[in-house]
Amino acid sequence: MTFTIFSGNLKIPELTEKIDMNTRLRKRRALMAVMFVLTTTPILMATSISPGYDMFTTPSGSNTFVQFANNPIPADFFGPGSDPFYGRIELQGAPMNTVPPGILGPTDTVIRRLDAATLPSCGAGDEIPIEIVALNLVSVSPITVTFNGGQFNELWDVNGCLSGSAPQPTGTMTIHHDCDAGGTFTSQMFVLPNFTFTQVDDPQNQRIFDFGVEGLPPIELDNSNGYWTHSDPSFNIISSPGGVMIDRDCDGATETTIGPGSNFFAGVVGSPCYCGYEPYGYDLVITDYQNPYGWAGLGIMPSQGQTDVPTLSEWGMLIMGLFLLAFGTAMFVRRGKAAIGVGS
């Protein structure tokens, strides 16, 4: 049997191509590793949340309503012969009166966090008391009130605010520090409302149904899926500067002074949310409060000022997309040159 020994710098085309491909793969993996490190650089955020006031708006279609099936508005409330009202009223927000005027923009709901939340590390949680401070809702469309057993009817507009006859009960919020940028929260809030009904055909004809005056219990509203961040990622979220006068019970008088906001922005979610790293992007979400018995609901979002400027997350996604496009194009051209024998 004869053996032939090859020596020298002999290149086998298939083997050379495999070696070149492995080299390219190693370089590509190294580049992707660098990109991962650059885009997941840890950020430093506060580990405690100061007390403060949070501003919200209530968009139409946010499952905001009140149901009078269990506590009907009594007969003759709207006038002699009016039937009891058992209906459901769909609601949406309307900007509240403030001094200075318009300083809170479209804000219709204000919630106060009464104590600081101590969050010593990422992954920690703390429970604090909260209270609804102001509310200004209006009916999406007029309600129909019947008279004399339904023989004729009238249309009425509805304005939902807070009772001016009794203080609002205190609720609770449990804040979870799930990532450096923020996290999640659950909360239970109690609302003692006041409803003003205005006849569409006769705006001077108004009726007031105040839960405090009527001796009715406050409406419990629970939220199990809230999100928050320490700062506003360029959504132009409205924050109270402090010293703002508001009309909490819709009586036309700005009788309540609210303080400033703080390092807590409810309704902003960072994704993904991991301890030690900054989220790739941020979104605004509805914080959904619902009564456990289906009597009422309140869907609120962070109150925003006017802005046409792209957010930081939008700029980041655009820049990353352009970078990946350029990188992919360069790799495609390089492979094309290798295929026709130009370069390596």
Task: Name the descriptors.
disordered N terminus; 23 strands; 344 residues; alpha+beta; 3 helices; 39% strand; 16-stranded antiparallel beta sheet; elongated; three-stranded antiparallel beta sheet
List the helices and strands and how they pair.
Blueprint lengths: L12 H27 L8 E2 L2 E6 L7 E3 L20 E6 L4 E2 L9 E5 L3 E2 L6 E11 L1 E3 L3 E5 L4 E11 L8 E9 L2 E10 L1 E7 L2 E9 H4 L4 E11 L11 E6 L9 E5 L4 E2 L1 E4 L9 E4 L2 E4 L5 E7 L9 H28 L5
Antiparallel strand pairs: 1-7, 2-6, 2-23, 3-4, 3-23, 4-9, 5-17, 6-8, 8-12, 9-11, 10-11, 11-14, 12-13, 13-16, 14-15, 16-19, 17-18, 20-21, 22-23
Structure description:
- The chain has 344 residues and is of the alpha+beta class.
- The protein has one domain (52-307).
- The protein is built from three helices and 23 strands.
- It has helices at 13-39, 211-214, 312-339, and strands at residues 48-49, 52-57, 65-67, 88-93, 98-99, 109-113, 117-118, 125-135, 137-139, 143-147, 152-162, 171-179, 182-191, 193-199, 202-210, 219-229, 241-246, 256-260, 265-266, 268-271, 281-284, 287-290, 296-302.
- It has a 16-stranded antiparallel β-sheet that branches. It has a three-stranded antiparallel β-sheet with strand order 5-17-18, with no helix packed on it. A two-stranded antiparallel ribbon has the order 1-7.
- A hairpin with a 2-residue loop joins strand 14 and strand 15 (202-210).
- It is elongated.
